[in-house]
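STRUCTURE REQUEST FORM
Protein name: Polysaccharide deacetylase family protein
Source organism: Rubritalea tangerina
Requested output: structure tokens
Priority: standard
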Amino acid sequence: MHSKHCSQNFKLSSYQDLQATLAAYSRPILKTTSLLATLLTCALTWALQAQAPLTADDSQKAVADAVNPPTLVQTTKDTSLVSVLGYHEFTEDQEATEMRLPTDKFRKQMQALKDLKYTVISLEEFLAWKNGTLKLPERSVLITIDDGWKSVYTHAFPILKEFEYPFTLFLYKNYVDGGGKALSSDMIKEMMQHGASIGSHSVSHPYPSTVKKNIKLGTEAYSAFLNTEFGESKSFLEDKFDKSIETYAYPGGFHTPEMFDIAKQKGYACLFTVLPGKVSKTSENMTLPRYIILGTHDSIFENATRFPATANSTASLGAIVQSTPFPVTPTAGSTISNRMPTISVDFSSLDNIDPDSVVMRVSGFGKVPLSIQPNRKIFSWKVNRRLRKPTCDITVSWKLLDADTYEKPMRWTFIVDRNAAYIPTTAPSLPKAKTPDTEPTISSE
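Status: completed
Returned output:
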């Protein structure tokens, strides 16, 4: 055995002995495979002699590894993140609500995704990435739309088609072909021909209170309830639209552990909540985060489009998509390079404003003194020290004449390009060389 040969011919009592032996046999080793295996076995024996003697199996493995070394496989961590956006209803002329988003703002949001160069992916690409069969860019966006409102087809679909963005419809059975404000099967099929995928949103869209009532009826009744909501909705969509359904969006985001087992039994791969956050490759598939974009909270879209820094890219601040009822400068969501701008609001279209009531607050400065142009009703303030943060938040409050209470405050944010502020507009001039009083002379001989 090699271990016996080692103990008889190589007396290794220290690391220095091993080094000396390796040096002495370096040239013959290159020519003699048997001696190479023997010496490697001796090294292993010396390393382990303080713990336990080598067995015959250990020796054989050392010889095998020496002759056929194992292949090292280098693995890299998937650092891709996906921001899942959740929408509901759209409007062109109604007031925004939490679930209803004006189409002009929706268009600006879609443009912001394009400007940020984010990749908008389909549901199929998302599933392939989660399954490990597709690699995504570091920053991607998945657009989802819940319930099945007709305004998706009339208002949002033309914009999505214009940008050539894929999107996902989470539909619940009882609302498809429901008439009135509901999507029809023909509308859904048309959208599926132009980038739309579909997923389940239950049968009846049960709110948390309904789910809790069914829980109180007992285990058997609750299980039957879940089988209906998860199972019938899936089979209905698959039969009507001839597509395999693998995803589910919890109505209201409410879920219980029992739902996970039922979902797996029915063949669902990914289920989405309403809790904000980015999806990573290792995110739990039964409770995937999603940003629900509300018509009354612009900061949600900003947070949804904010990504952390990676080894290959800097952090993204996110897109600021806002609108204001009156003209302002700098405009909402704009990027400026001047770190000491003039901030103003134009109330010229408001006839009965009380000019003495106008209050402007600027982040980092608090309440600021305003200059007023009475004839034009423009209120402004010149920033008196350099803005230091990457964004600046403004709030303006006012009252109408003879009113006891203030109107709803107007808020907006602009971005400060701090790097641009340090770039000189012209190259610095070099000082002129001094002219000597007397010209040097060159003698010739």
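Reviewer notes: The first helix runs from residue 2 to 9. Residues 109 and 396 are 24 Å apart (CA to CA).
Form closed.
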